[in-house]
Design goal:
This protein is mainly β and 131 residues long. It has a single domain, classed as Jelly Rolls. It has one helix and eight strands. It has one helix at residues 2-15; strands at residues 21-30, 35-36, 41-49, 74-76, 79-81, 105-107, 112-115, 121-130.
């Protein structure tokens, strides 16, 4: 009887700790207009498609989007991130790039996201958080 009561108490304690299930809601394309992850949702940033990139080790630091052959950043919560899938390099500005910025990236509710340039697009999967 003692073990039965103890087992029931342990089981009851773990049922109070809830985790969410993810339910697919929609696919979102994000460009250079700031979008915010809605309450009760999470975003999984799957890919970043940049228009016209040709040179793998050049970055555009000014954000003017004038050079189609340079890496453009994505902006998460106001912070600039360059996605580099290879060896570190540097552009003509001497700015070094980190190879660790690789997708996917998960964003919680309230996070903001945008691209630096109008022709670039981020592919995002939005999930509902279901208790």
């Amino acid at each position: 009887m003692k073990f039965l009561v103890l087992g029931a108490l342990v089981l009851f304690a773990f049922t109070g700790v809830g985790q969410y299930n993810l339910q697919l809601n929609q696919v979102v394309l994000v460009s250079n207009t700031i979008q915010t992850v809605p309450a009760g949702k999470v975003w999984k940033v799957e890919s970043y498609m940049q228009a016209g990139i040709a040179a793998p080790d050049m970055i555009e630091v000014g954000g003017s989007c004038a050079y189609s052959d340079r890496h453009h950043p994505m902006i998460v919560n106001g912070q600039t991130f360059f996605l580099i899938n290879g060896s570190p390099g540097h552009g003509s500005s001497g700015t070094f790039l980190a190879v660790s910025n690789i997708l996917p990236m998960w964003l919680p509710a309230g996070s903001t996201l945008r691209t630096a340039c109008a022709k670039d697009v981020l592919s995002v999967i939005e999930f509902n958080l279901v208790p």
